[in-house]
Amino acid sequence: MTHRTAVVTGASSGFGRLTAQTLAADGWRVYATMRNVATTNAPAATALKNAGISVVELDVTSDASVDAAAKTILAEAGAVDVLVNNAGTGFFGIEEAFTPAAAEQQFATNVIGPLRVNRAFLPSMRERRSGLVVYVSSVVGRMIVPFGGIYTASKWALEALAETSSYELAPFGVDVAIVQPGAYATEIFGKITSADDAARVTAYGDVVKYEEALTAGLAASAKDRDPQEVADAILRLAKASAGTRPLRTVVPENAAVEAINDAVAPIQREILKAFGMEALLPKTLA
Fold it and tell me: For residue 151, how many C-alpha atoms fall within 13 Å in the half-sphere facing its CB?
């Protein structure tokens, strides 16, 4: 039996862990990747292994780690059908109060990380002229919320990389899909990184109360949502026929974000056509 093979980054918790489990339950050969397999993430790694999932050490911020993981996976699996770029972190707070070093950390994981992982796995996909790359973005990859400037900027950058690659990879038969989740009660709420310049935060005085209101509002909206919905959406994309997958999928349905997606798509089509690059449009956007 030929197994379909998937690689999921950031699989120690949240959407990544659920996605790895969901794909495995559907019969996929899954490589769940994460940092610190033998230490802080050992319980998660053990649980995934007990479910028949292969666990591989992979830190998206390290060239050596990504290259070693890709070498191990490709040598064993031979090919990867679906790559899920899920690993990410969340930096929230007053934008001015983040030092450049902190902002670089956010982008190192959320933007440069997927680029690094893609460089490790895309050559084999292009050679085979098939495959799917999924990017787990966010609804704030399309809209802005105060106090989310650093995080939101990273997701806007991720969406730009993803959409650009969808055009560049289309001639090779490799699909790209962006999943835009809303707020869900995953572990990310307990791992949010706050602004690291306390004096700048203090200088904003009462403005900080609006950040607290935003945090409370996000938690409230996430409370009754099941993060399994995101994993199920990724499974549907993975099982869809090549060339039929939508570029963006919003989970759960969000009229505002879907309206933005629908409004921008025809503009993008016209831009490519204006430069004579219609051949690079994926079938779902042509």
Answer: 22
Enumerate the active-site residues: 12, 137, 151, 155
Convert the pLDDT of each residue in 96-131 to its tens digit.
999 999 999 999 999 999 999 999 999 999 999 999
Name residues whose C-beta falls within 8 Å of residue 193's C-beta, 6 or more positions apart in sequence.
89, 90, 91, 92, 102, 105, 106
The DSSP bridge partners found for residue 56 are 33
Rg, C-alpha atoms of the chain: 19
- Angle at the Cα of 23 from the Cα atoms of 236 and 69, rounded to 5 degrees: 120
Q: 132 has which bridge partners?
A: 82, 175
Going along the chain from its start, the domains and CATH numbers come out as: 5-254 (3.40.50.720)
Residue 4 is given by DSSP the state: P
pLDDT, tens only, 54-64: 999 999 999 99
- φ, ψ at 85 (rounded to 5°): -85, 95
Above 50 in pLDDT, residue 1?
no
Q: Please name the amino acid found at residue 51.
A: A
281: amino acid identity, one letter: L
Most confident of 21-30, 206-215, 217-226: 21-30
For 94, residues 6+ apart whose C-beta sits below 8 A from its C-beta are: 147, 195, 200, 201, 204, 207, 208, 211
